[in-house]
């Protein structure tokens, strides 16, 4: 199989790569997702595009876990933005979550709550109760490279499919 974007030696339907994915991701992948095998030492976006092609910078999205706080209540959510932008945590995320304060969740919280590896967190297979905030540019993209839940490997997914994941809410201005 050939990946819809990029030039990867090993690309296959994600449904045929479940053994390479953490359990929550393996259970959630669908037929329109492609798994590409990549070097785990090159999982971070900057290293990834050097190794696999600079054009992928414009075709990648990052997923981060945030914590919104209001009094003693903490709401965890995931945000998905193009890799060329940053999540607007202090405005868009805070307002959407109805929080007084929002910040990136700690590594221990992000890893512990998702069952995924830090640096590989993906919107596919997130805890069911979490909101998934998706930037409009992500939803509009033909295909994007995202994490696979591990540092080894990536998923290539249509933007439309990302916007239709469980808990997804498309927000204009999430990525700045």
TrEMBL record:
InterPro entries the record matches: YbaK/aa-tRNA-synt-asso_dom_sf, YbaK/aa-tRNA-synth-assoc-dom
GO molecular function: aminoacyl-tRNA deacylase activity
Domain (YbaK/aminoacyl-tRNA synthetase-associated): residue spans on this chain: 43-164
Protein name: Cys-tRNA(Pro) deacylase, prolyl-tRNA editing enzyme YbaK/EbsC
Organism: Actinacidiphila rubida
């Amino acid at each position: 199989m050939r990946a819809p974007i990029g030039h990867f030696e090993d690309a296959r339907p994600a449904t045929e790569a479940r053994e390479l994915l953490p359990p929550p991701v393996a259970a959630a992948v669908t037929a329109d997702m492609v798994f590409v095998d990549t070097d785990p030492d090159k999982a971070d976006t900057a290293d990834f595009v050097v190794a696999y092609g600079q054009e992928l910078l414009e075709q990648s999205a990052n997923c981060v876990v945030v914590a919104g706080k209001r009094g003693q209540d903490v709401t965890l959510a995931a945000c998905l933005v193009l890799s060329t932008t940053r999540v607007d945590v202090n405005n868009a995320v805070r307002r959407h979550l109805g929080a007084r304060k929002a910040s990136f969740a700690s590594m221990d919280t992000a890893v512990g709550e998702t069952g995924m590896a830090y640096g590989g967190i993906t919107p596919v297979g997130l805890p069911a109760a979490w909101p998934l905030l998706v930037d409009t540019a992500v939803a509009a993209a033909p295909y994007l490279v995202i994490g696979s839940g591990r540092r080894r490997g990536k998923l290539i997914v249509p933007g439309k499919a990302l916007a239709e994941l469980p808990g997804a809410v498309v927000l204009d201005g999430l990525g700045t």
